[in-house]
């Protein structure tokens, strides 16, 4: 029941954010005097509507987004009523059209920023000093996180009843113990522990010295076997190695909370990281398409593949089911930031395409004026329709692929 609640809540959050996107277009267009005839949440048949002034507001039957109808977005629009010629969008200065078209993305960025700031002063943001790479992790003290078992294959999965207890568990080691030596070899860091264990053999007895709550202790256990690539080549071929069944418990906290003022700087830093990550994710989309197809046809789902609204909602459901509300809101932040950036891409039919054309027209008119030639006027959107249809076709196919993969082989964040 909690999973279903999470799915519904996340889907509702997406619908609200997309509706606010359209409200951004609506409010800025009206503020500049442009004529807006329709503002609807959803698509398809009208469920309910009312008219206030010259604008009809309402709810459609398919709650998958929304739309705002601004009269005369292009010179080719033929729905301009007599007397409204001066209020059509394409006649307004380029800076006003830019604000109106960018208002949707700005709304998504604002939602993300506000949510980040709230998290910064409440639940906390990811600690920038927390080790995120193998190199950083190996420099940490060898404070351990116990694993219930040793997975024999080179994979990350939950333990099953068929898996034997880990050597560390059999030796009665505990979470938070700091290992100081293995078979007489001093251990100063987690990297030292890994290196020392790789020098031993599966089935060999290891004598372990540790510190628990400030008190030294010792124990011994028989090392298990697993498959791992070389420490200096994570992409290399996995081979049998000795395993203790422990992971790293970093000495630094995973999250940091801030005061109301300090949260602004933390929000800016986190947003910068998010921007870089979003651009990198967009760049990886073409190379991830084969991985999506593999997932759809029965292969393992790569956790780095794109997800659809369906996949994001499922992950939101998982987060609520596991009481991981921070994950829920981080998903909401990431999705809003991604949508905001995506909508600014200079491609029709997204908002960025209209902005790019507006500034192209402005630059072309300036150049023609400088060389003494007549202004070529506005871009003919009809000539761009074939290219627009190609973008829509590719985008639609990609959307269907991600939705199908999210239904058949979804990404999961928590073991089941």
UniProtKB/TrEMBL annotation:
Q: Where in the cell is it found?
A: Membrane
Would you say which domain of life the source belongs to? Answer: Bacteria
Q: Which residues form the Peptidase M50 domain?
A: 10-365
Q: Transmembrane residues, as ranges?
A: 99-120, 387-408
State the species of origin. Micromonospora vulcania
Which InterPro entries does the UniProt entry name for this protein? PDZ_6, PDZ_sf, Pept_M50_Zn, Peptidase_M50
Spell out the family assignment given in the record's similarity comment: Belongs to the peptidase M50B family.
Q: Which UniProt keywords apply?
A: Hydrolase, Membrane, Metalloprotease, Protease, Transmembrane, Transmembrane helix, Zinc
Q: Which PANTHER family match?
A: MEMBRANE METALLOPROTEASE ARASP2, CHLOROPLASTIC-RELATED, REGULATOR OF SIGMA-E PROTEASE RSEP
Q: What is this protein called?
A: M50 family metallopeptidase
Q: How does it sit in the membrane?
A: Multi-pass membrane protein
Q: Tell me the Pfam families matching this sequence.
A: PDZ_6, Peptidase_M50
